[in-house]
Design a protein that fits this description.
By secondary structure, the chain is an alpha/beta fold. It folds into two domains: 32-171, Cytidine Deaminase, domain 2 (3-Layer(aba) Sandwich); 183-434, 3-Layer(aba) Sandwich (Dihydrofolate Reductase, subunit A). It is built from 16 helices and 16 strands. Helix 3 runs parallel beside helix 4. The chain is globular and about 70 Å long. The N and C termini lie close together (8 Å).
Length: 446
């Protein structure tokens, strides 16, 4: 099966549901099934799963709709991490359990078959008395991995697999790929002009994309566990990196991560310190700062000491001779990060700048890209993705794999999965070709 989304559906779910109501007419519309057939009910399950954005991680955000004789009798979505799964939420909402006899459950991901923080959903479904279960996507988690489907079939429940599989895959891409890659996934997000600039040469442009694109970006922010930016972006833009302009529900604020190899945050001016305190550091949201060990050890001004002593800031260091991206990935999987974040870290949204995105692309670490293209031309030479001329010798040395060097024969290949309009912008969402092929090879679509 080809991994490609229907129009109006994105990696954030139904696109029109991710932006405020006043902007919903500006985005590519999603045309739902009108006839009350299997597809209609699975689409309803997908819509329901969007209620769990940001809270289920690192579990998948699953939706479940239960139907009897063509009439919906219950629906539910996964509760916050450690809480009930979608199937149990839906079933327990029914006071008259006799209604479940012979019913059909529509579930966006294969029901789990193991004991974790909750009992297995397969057992809940079997005991409920349902006769049929329509599943969008198999679960690659080694603790499940087709066992849930097998157990349902063994108990005489009819199982249909693969309906709306691409959409279910996109919605739970963070969960699926972190299982397959055995690490947190990295997602690149950037807005660019038609001629490929993420900012003008003087950094005077505040926004390239429009309000609809920014609203969708904010929705994506809560879908990811953390936002990663470079120190230059923090010092220049003083960003909030918060979720605020998207559609409801706003369930959480992501952790912040700053890549600061030269320790620039530790030595910024008093003016910048004040701005950071009032905006970037104003909340108690967990923050991780990656820097070289020598800068953290040698810097002892009062500002640096206050950062080091802050309970919500965690400094993680690497040495100049380290291959630091490998070191950082190991850190992100570690117990120290798990404790700081409060649960396992599953996904990171990389919002720039262009140098940081270039390093991650060249290191083959961006597992998905959300790219917003605005129909403007500005010219110039700076602030472009994959431009080695924009990196210092030190920054180039930090990159593990080679650039294509301007040669088409060496170009990295990607698969376009979704393309949608947001106001006057186009949002393209694509994944590396090798990951697209791996998903098909593992046969989780059908």
């Amino acid at each position: 099966m080809s991994f490609r989304l229907t129009e109006g559906f994105s990696f954030g779910g139904v696109l029109s549901k991710t932006v405020p109501p006043e902007l919903s007419n500006e985005v590519t519309p999603w045309i739902p099934e009108k006839e009350r057939n299997d597809r209609y009910w699975m689409e309803q399950a997908l819509l329901t799963s969007m209620n769990s954005v940001g809270i289920a991680n690192p579990n998948p955000a699953v939706g479940c709709v239960i139907v009897r004789n063509g009439v919906e009798i219950a629906r539910g979505s996964t509760l916050a991490f450690g809480g009930k799964h979608a199937e149990r939420v839906a079933i327990e909402s029914i006071s008259d359990k006799s209604l479940l006899q012979g019913a059909c459950a529509y579930v966006t991901l294969e029901p789990c078959s193991h004991f974790g923080k909750q009992p297995p959903c397969t057992q809940t479904l079997i005991e409920s008395g349902i006769a049929r279960c329509v599943v969008a996507l198999a679960d690659p988690n080694p603790l499940v991995n087709w066992d849930g489907i097998r157990l349902l079939k063994d108990k005489g429940i009819e199982v249909c697999l693969g309906l709306c599989a691409s959409e279910a895959m996109a919605w739970n891409y963070n969960f699926i790929m972190s299982q397959l890659l055995n690490r947190p996934i990295f997602a690149g997000k950037w807005a660019q002009t038609l001629d490929g600039h993420l900012a003008d040469d003087e950094f005077t442009s505040k926004w390239i994309s429009g309000s609809s694109s920014r609203a969708y970006t904010h929705w994506l922010r809560q879908k990811y566990d953390a936002i990663l930016v470079g120190a230059g972006t923090v010092l220049r833009d003083i960003p909030e990196l918060s979720v605020r302009s998207c559609s409801q529900p706003i369930n959480r604020q992501p952790m912040k991560i700053v890549f600061d190899p030269k320790g620039r945050l530790l030595n910024c001016s008093e003016h910048i310190q004040k701005q950071l305190s009032e905006k970037f550091l104003a909340s108690s949201t967990p923050l991780i700062i990656f820097t070289q060990e020598k800068f953290l050890v040698s810097t002892h001004n009062s500002w640096a000491e206050s950062l080091k002593e802050s309970e919500h800031i965690l400094f993680l260091t690497f040495k100049e001779e380290d291959y630091f991206w490998e070191k950082i990935v190991d850190y992100l999987k570690s117990e120290v990060v798990k404790r700081h974040f409060g649960k396992p870290l599953q996904s990171i949204l990389v919002e720039g700048g262009s140098k940081l995105l270039t390093q991650l692309l060249a290191a083959n670490l961006l597992d998905i890209c959300h790219v917003f293209i605005a129909p403007i031309l500005i010219g110039g030479v700076a602030n472009r993705i994959m431009n080695p001329l924009s990196l210092s010798l030190e920054e180039t040395a930090f990159t593990s794999s080679k650039y294509a060097g301007g040669k088409l024969s060496l170009a990295s290949q990607y698969k376009l999965v979704a393309q949608n309009r947001l106001g006057n912008d186009i949002c393209m969402e694509f994944i590396p070709q090798y990951l697209a092929e791996e998903l098909v090879r593992r046969n989780i679509f059908q």
